[in-house]
Amino acid sequence: MLEQTQLLVDKGEMLPLMEEFYTIQGEGFHKGTAAYFIRIGGCDVGCHWCDVKESWNAALHPPTRTEAIVKNAAAYSNTVVVTGGEPLTWDMGPLTAQLKAKGLQVHIETSGAYSLTGAWDWICLSPKKVKLPTEEIYKVANELKVIVYNNDDLRFAEEQAAKVNSECILYLQPEWSKREKVIPVIVDYVMKHPKWKVSLQTHKYLNIP
Q: Which positions does UniProt annotate for [4Fe-4S] cluster binding (predicted)?
């Protein structure tokens, strides 16, 4: 039974589902819009400031059939955001095919550290220094969102911006625990480098998931 489940997980027909919820997108280009979030467990990127570290261990989250995930999502919203963890740890093909068959807009939030699978209407690439994105995702990312924890992250942001396609929208977002210190730095930087925009975790200010 365990071997059969693992086979389905490997094929993307089951996924380690951490949580799913209907809320307001708080970050980036689509902030302020209603969306159904699907959070997939499993991540080995290991950002020390991650605010969902409980997502890292995939074994803690029950393998769930993609059909059940899609059924829940379709009941709430026409926009679905797949996040993690790192969702590209798994094959996203079956999940996105079923979501799109329901006529849903399908977005992903990813570090890009693994090969891109699935069919996406919007790709938010949030690269991390510890495990850099694959070259392929730079070509198709719709937005680049760099989390700013310290001044060196601005250097990293420019390095990453040089790799994305010309249509990609560029965002700098303060790491939440450092926001009071970092926001003035980001504001000053964006005013001097207006190709960038400021992204805030507005859902935290709204006190919603």
A: 43, 47, 50
